[in-house]
Design brief:
The protein is mostly helical. Helix content is about 65%, strand content about 0%.
């Protein structure tokens, strides 16, 4: 196990976690939010420089994900304000 796993186990065992009162309702709401967040219902086509695509494919390979997933993730983070220009 990694340190994060051990820290989580210790935290649970020490009673630092509490159940929410409306667990079923909260679970349903969070599951719906996850579905809506991950829905990919629009297709786009873009032209990019070959060197950029090659670099993105290399990064995606290092992370073990498809390069299109990486591109979609970066665009989502930018669109949602999680990534800002320097």
């Amino acid at each position: 196990m990694i340190d994060e796993d051990l820290a989580l186990i210790n935290s649970v065992e020490q009673g630092e976690w509490q159940s929410v009162n409306n667990f079923a309702q909260m679970k349903k709401a969070l599951m719906q939010a996850a579905v809506e967040t991950t829905a990919k219902d629009t297709r786009i086509n873009i032209r990019m420089a070959k060197r950029d695509v090659t670099a993105i494919k290399s990064i995606a390979m290092e992370q073990g994900i498809p390069y299109q997933t990486l591109i979609a993730s970066v665009l989502h983070k930018y669109a949602s304000g999680q990534v800002v220009e320097k």
